[in-house]
Batch of 4 targets.
Target 1
Amino acid sequence: MLTISGQEPSLLRLSDKVSVRFVKLGNGPPLVLLHTIRTQLEYFRDLAPRLAGTFTVYAVDLPGHGHSPIDPTAPFDEPYLRNAVVGVLKALDLRDVTLVGESIGAVLALTAAAEVPDRVRAIYALNTYDYETRFGDGIRRGNWFANAIIGGLQVPVFGPIGGDLENRFVLGTIMGGGFADPRKLPPDLLTEFDTVAHRRQYKRVARKVLQQWRSWPKARERYSAVKAPVTLIYGNKDWSRVPERERTKAALTGARLVTLPNTGHFSSVENPRGVADVILSGRPQ
């Protein structure tokens, strides 16, 4: 199993039905990493060590993702996952927190910060997945293959593709559409994602996350309540379009927007140095 700097993950119980896996490393004020759709805490294996010299880094598996326990009855919409993120901050009693999220993790960083503003110091939202478009549209924009599967067959990709037909090749082809250079998707990380995809009930979770797509653009309604300073970071090859990025920026008071060159949607994997440089350069001295 992959690790982040050799750290063994722990399990954090949030309620009778919700527990999440997390890993902790580094020293300094707390920083929490929230991963993308269909990935897990190991997604940050190259970014987290770059931040651990300045922060105490917590990388978290969202409920039902990675190796976190699965409650198949849960809705897996934005409010459900947001409540879990807030639960992590409270259970670990984290304050003066920097929240860093990618894709749906970016949305959760923003909405969790709106929920508990007294605990959050700063937010870095990477490739925020909050555009109000059809089912799985960000993934559709990634490449013709994803669009053909989702649009033509009307089934979610990062989950069940016609039941049990998902395999490593299919997953890699679709995820590759989220990279400026698909060759930067590490084979061992893809293998881990593929292994996790075959956990019992995991594909049901993936299906529910995509079916709840309307909850992600609706989350923008909460952005006006964000009090902490926000940095929006987009890869220049991200799935979102420029007007969508500007709309998100306008919804956040005083937010700044940074664009990373030669970077796609999965920026923490493709360009961890660029992401870390933006975060560390914004750290008050």
Note: The CA atoms of residues 103 and 129 lie 5 Å apart.
Target 2
Amino acid sequence: MMKCFVMRGIGKVAVMDKPIPRPGPLDAIIRTTAALICTSDTRTVAGAIGDRQDLTLGHESVGVIHELGEAVKAAGMFKAGQRVAVNAITPCYACDNCQRGYPSQCGGILGGWKFANAKDGAMAEDFHVNNAIANLASIPDGLCDEQAAYCCDMLSTGFVAAEFGNIPIGGSVAVFAQGPVGLMATVGARLRGAGLVIGVESMPNWIALVKKYGCDVVVDYSKEDPVAAIMKITGGKGVDTGIEALGSSKTFAVCISATRPGGTISNVGYHGDGDTVPIPRLDFGVGMSDKTIRTALCPGGSERMGRLLRLIERGRVDPLAMTTHRFAFKDIERALTMMQTKADGMVKPLIVFG
């Protein structure tokens, strides 16, 4: 048996015992060493994707291989005891959407998001990984487990916001919300060649991180209108790329208003409530402004994970400054509660197993 952190129903969580999973031929079982709690975990518990009964939470976990399926073992790419990271998204890489180039939508909308959605998540002493050859990534010897855990979601999601943002070399970018995903979108924008990165945030401890991770200008939306401020900074033009990293209808609308004609709105925020996401009609040019809206779900796969790990290994990004709190697994319920309210200036909590 193993211990798991589960959603008992909307608004209810607990640690409970479950049998250690067994792998199918294509699968693997990972013994968890470290994990991160995501804001999306708090939204799932709040009912954003409906009720779940005793579903294990979590999708940002790393560990060592405990058991391999026969086909994975025969391939000879991985072995028991090897340190690995697993992306939050674990596609099959065989279905129609995967073959069309949209593996995050494996089998249907959000279908690549299996952990804590369609199956038990990774916030447990052991967790199951489907299609392991494509979804396991070896952790380089020079990286610690905590560094690798950031590749599971925060780096992959933040960077895809920049990748899908169509940022011209030297172009201008506004990143709305500077939580962990927004911070990594800021880093991603700089890596993609942005000449001006504007961070929109109001929480003082997060603003300090915004500057550390490379924003050129910070707009505190609690003190000034962000659209007016961005227009002033850009000489009345607006930004080439607006990145929505929060999942708020209001923020999404502001993002559209602050983006110049012909620009791109790149949304990676998790819109966890409401039935619609409104678009400001006039600032959208009554539908004819040549503005592009692009959405993305955290890209997975071992190849991408390897590239993200390389960026940390080569010093292009240091995610560890985002870890503001550390907890033993036995204290995970307290960690989730603090993450819900961002108590004590929490940005990202690390959960240590064993």
Note: The radius of gyration is 20 Å.
Target 3
Amino acid sequence: MPATYGFLSTYPPTQCGLATFNAALASHLTAGSGGSGVVRLLADDAAGGGLPLDRMAPRVVHTWRTDTPGGWVAATNALNRFDVAIVQHEYGIYPGDAGEEVLPLLRALKVPTIVVLHTVLSSPDPMQRSVLERIVATAHAVVTMTDTARQRLIGGYRVEPRKVAVIPHGAASHSSAPRPHHDRPHLLTWGLLGPGKGIEWALRALALLQDKEPTPTYTVAGRTHPNVLAHHGDAYRESLRALADELAVADSVAWDDVYHDQATLSRLIRSADVVLLPYDSTEQVTSGVLIEAVGADVPVVATEFPHAVELLADGPGLLVPHQDPEAMAAAIRHVLAAPNVAGLSGLAGGPTLRWPAVAARYQALASRLRAERAPVAAAKLPA
């Protein structure tokens, strides 16, 4: 009989990459087998109106309202009804200092537990370090999505290396049809918008391409991040619009303030000649946007954040220094001049990085953990 899985995470219709990741993993891992379910993390200020659930995705069996003290108790009870618990971890989604309220939940779980780490900081503060070390100590296994994150974890934290597995972020299957033709080269960045996204550097690179004939267009797709919107309004987007005006590129920029479902996102990605990832962060060890871009066979120009360095070092794209619009513009010129040159497109690893293969690796890990615990459970039975 197939194992049942309890997932703990944010979840659609919440608008965030973590929710989208968890829904995709849950859908492919359970594959309509039934019996699995999701414990959804929900803050009072969470933005709804996002993506509807795929009909194959597990349903929500309990909601942990993270603004309510002690919510971990009921969440634990819900997760203990399943054979395996898969817990997504990101700073900022759990209550307490550095999200420490996930710890009593992990200690109280009676089933094999896999914690998926979406962020591993290179310079955590003392509380962030302590919480993450205790998460690894309590979980039966933890997953990082890149070798970079694993090396950072086992080299910079006191953890048991044997517990740490690398399973890549899954990529959706995109149409294999030729990309649509358009009169002007199309540049694209997408994802929730906020400071640190680096769009200002992409706009400056676009301004340096105004001598190209025809001049490129640039689409910035995605809603403003709900946390940014709640605390700062749409000031970042408005500052970008003002910069585009100042650089005289406003007519070449489309602001697509929409949270796309997978079908429309796939069409948007496939319409691009180059995906730009101009991120400011030097900490980002996992990027779903990056994996989707290369999975769609679209060349990428990205700053040197850790996941991009690992995935693009051998192709399929070009790396540029952070906050360097001249280097970014030169890389875009290179890609547009030779879009089909070897090493500029194609998902490294091919089918092994598609969601079905990624889900199979989680299934294998869960099966191993259940097998390891079976003798322990049998030994506790009365004679």
Note: Residues 186-337 form a domain with the Rossmann fold fold (CATH 3.40.50.2000).
Target 4
Amino acid sequence: MTDTNTEKKVRLGGMALPNGVLVHGPTSWACAVRREDGRLQVVSRRKRLRAEQVSSPLLRGPARLVEAFAVVPQAKRALPAARLPFQRPHVFAAFVASALAGRLVRTSRLRPAAAEAAAALLSLVPPLVALRGGELAAYHGAEHITIGSYEHGEPRPKEHERCGSHLIGPLLVTGALGNLGARRAPASLQKPARIAAVVASAAAATEIFRWMTAHPRHPLARALARPGHELQRRIATAEPSAAQLEVAEAALNACLELERDRDPADPPSGL
């Protein structure tokens, strides 16, 4: 694994796959998978879309979310052996079912606040279904252990303080409030209002998350992080095998190799 004592740390993110791990930094990404024949395969590329220079509080959160997901189709094209969580039929079915159920709830006789809260909770069904069974939860744990150990310079557990699960609480609240506000728009402006609500809720949630990671010992930050931590501990992650850790470390090292060779004109990165 990379020497953590002599290297300036790079801020990293990641995504677990059913057969591997995707790691991304400010300018690059790398994906490593375990093929069905047992071979380890790794690819790495520069990012086509980068959000690190976006400083507006309204835009930087959504921009970073778009950047993180934009590398997924790029990785899939470069590494066809990579399997995506939502490729599995039962996960896709859960996504469709939760979307339809959310639409029905919003048009039901429930009070608007209750309907939006219920719809927000239904949106959690697909990722929870994706994590049930298979190796995804273990690769999620491998991703956290590898990135966390690199960042802290010491062995870390399978739960990570910057996991997207910590966004769930803020997103549920800001999303419900945003959609509740969009309901009050005139009928002719409902669609634009909902789009604006999505952007605003994502921006607000990521700014809350940004504050949480900057003040991890604050009582409110710890309270907001608790649901995500428990979700990681109980459902979203599992203890990985040595072979799964090898895959995650291969992705991390390939990403760091590109980050070390980044264009000197790029702005500096760090924790």
Note: The CA atoms of residues 120 and 209 lie 18 Å apart.
